[in-house]
Amino acid sequence: MIPSFILVRLPEEGKARMTCHNCRTECRKYGKDRKGYTRYQCRRCKRTFTEPHEKLEGMYTDIDSACHALQMLVEGCSVSTVERLTGIHHTTLLKLLVVAGERCAAVIGKIICNVPVTDVQCDELWGFIQKKESHKAPWEANDNSIGDAYCFVAIERKTKLVLNFALGRRDNATTNIFIEGLRAATSPQRFQITTDGFQPYKNAIADTLADRVDYAMQIKVYANSADEHRYSPGEVTHTERVPVMGSPEKRRICTSHVERQNLTMRMQIRRLTRLTNGFSKKWENHWAALCLHFAWYNFCRVHRTLRVTPAMESGLTDHVWEMRELLMAA
Q1: Structural domain harbouring 19
Q2: Residues 184 and 113: beta-carbon distance below 8 Å
Q3: Nearest CA-CA partner of 288 in 129, 154, 133
Q4: Pair 110, 42 in one domain
Q5: If you average pLDDT over residues 257-265, what whole number do you get?
Q6: How far is CA 176 from its chain centroid?
Q7: What is the DSSP letter of 301?
Q8: Looking at the DSSP assignment, which residues form a beta bridge with residue 52?
Q9: What is the pLDDT of residues 277-297, one digit of tens each?
Q10: Which of 262, 278, 273, 277 is nearest to 78 (CA)?
Q11: How far apart are CA 115 and CA 111, in angstroms?
C-alpha cells in the first residue's frame, strides 16, 4: 500500500518535515492525537496524517502500548484487568496476544536449539479450555479443542532454562511430540533426564533420546482419600526413584525444580489460576499465552536464585531482554 505521506529530512537544518504524498506539499503540524503522536495537515488538500511510529503487523496499537499490555499479562493480570488499566479493548488485547505468541514461538525455536545440558526434568501441568473434560456434552466428546489441556514442560535443572513445552492431551501423541522437540533443543552430549511416573515417557524417550540420556522416574505414592469431591490430590506418603535407562545418578533423580516451575506458571499465567473464571476459551489464545510466558521467562525475567535470566545463564544471550526486544527478535 502506498503511504499518504513522506518523511523528509532537510540536510541544511537537520530537521524532519512531513510531505504529503499526493500533493508533494510540506505539511504543517496539526496538534497531537490521543496517544501523544504529532499530527500533520497538508496545506493544499487538507488531509491529516500522524507521525510514523512502530507497530506490530496487523495492529493499530503502537509498540509501546503493546509492550505495556503484554508486560501486564505475563505478570499475572487478566485480560479484563489489562483492559481497565490500559483502555485497550479486550478484542484488541487477544489479537495482540496471538501476534506476540507467534513471534515468541519463532524466537524460542530459533534460539533454543542444540543447547548443552546436564540435568533435565519433565512434568505435565493440567489446565482446561472453555470447560472441564467432565462437563463436555456428548456431542463434544471428540472435540479436542475444548476440555482438558496439559502443558508438558522440560527444564534444565542448573540454568532453569525451559528447553521445550507442548500443549495437548495427556496421551502418547503429545508425549512423542514433546520429546521430539526436546531432542531438537538439546545438544548430542549425554545428559540425565527425570520424569514422573507417566508411562508414555518410557517409549517416547527410548525411541527418541536413547542415544544421549540416562533416564529415571520419580514416582509419587499418594494416600487414599475418602472424600470423592476433593479438588487436590491426596497426601504424598513416599516417593520411589526408579532407574529406567542407562546409568542415572540416584542423587540427581528429582522433579522438584520443574514442579516449582509449575507454580510459577500458575502464578504468572492468569489462565492457569485455579478456581477463577479467567480460564482460556480458545485453544489459540491458550497456546499464545504459553509461548509468551516461556519466552518472557527465558529471556526477560531475572531469576532470583541465578540473578540473571535463564538464557544468560545458559550462554544464549548476554543481557536481560526488554519486551520490545523480545517481540522484535523474530
Answers
A1: 5-50
A2: yes
A3: 129
A4: no
A5: 96
A6: 20
A7: P
A8: none
A9: 999 999 999 999 999 999 999
A10: 278
A11: 9
